[in-house]
Amino acid sequence: MRIDGNHSGNPQYTPNSFAHKFRPDAAEAPYAVADNIVSRKSHFVHEGKKSEYSQARELYKRVMDDEARKHTHINTANMLRFVKYPVIQSKYLAQIYNIAPEYARGVYDLLPKKEFEFSEVEEGAKDAEFAYKEAKFRPSEHDRLVGKMPPNPIYNMYT
Fold first, then answer.
1. What pLDDT, on a 0 to 100 scale, did the predictor assign at position 50?
2. Burial status of residue 103 (CB atoms within 10 A of its CB: 0-12, 13-18, 19 or more)
3. DSSP alpha helices (H): ranges in 32-98?
């Protein structure tokens, strides 16, 4: 039984587009479990890099045919039109722009009500891979966890 108001109607996810409530300075300290480390730091080597979109790009460009891409544009636009806030639509289109610019353009063109210019999507796509990813928790160049204790510090304190 909850006694704390169950978030009192706040969104059940963070961060969101309206309030970035996550405090990286208050993240829990890393701790060892067996021979590995549990922490908020990502050890997924592509996180925060353009290569994060590679698999989706391959699917869109090489696996899908023109008909499948057309259906993807229509289905995405049909659902994106229900999003109430243009800022969220623009941020989503910026993410899919990194998969393929023609994907984002195809979805944008099918939106019934355009409350922002496509140039905003293009501008947002330049650093979309960093959206809500704290530098402190992004993977470093040479510290993948593979069953050994990582070099310290665990978090990227000086980036």
1. 75
2. buried
3. 54-58, 66-80, 86-97
Tokens of 144: 């993948």
CA distance 98 to 105: 11
> Facing residues of 36 across strands?
33
Residue 82 is predicted with a pLDDT of 94
Q: What are phi and psi of 33, to 5 degrees?
A: -130, 115
Residue whose pair of structure tokens reads 């993807």 in the numeric block: 72
Query: What does pTM read for this prediction?
Result: 0.68
How far apart are the C-alpha atoms of 145 and 153, rounded to whole Å?
Answer: 13
- Per the DSSP assignment, residues forming a β-bridge with 64 are none
Q: How confident is the model at residue 38 (pLDDT cuts 50, 70, 90)?
A: low
Q: State the average pLDDT for the chain.
A: 76
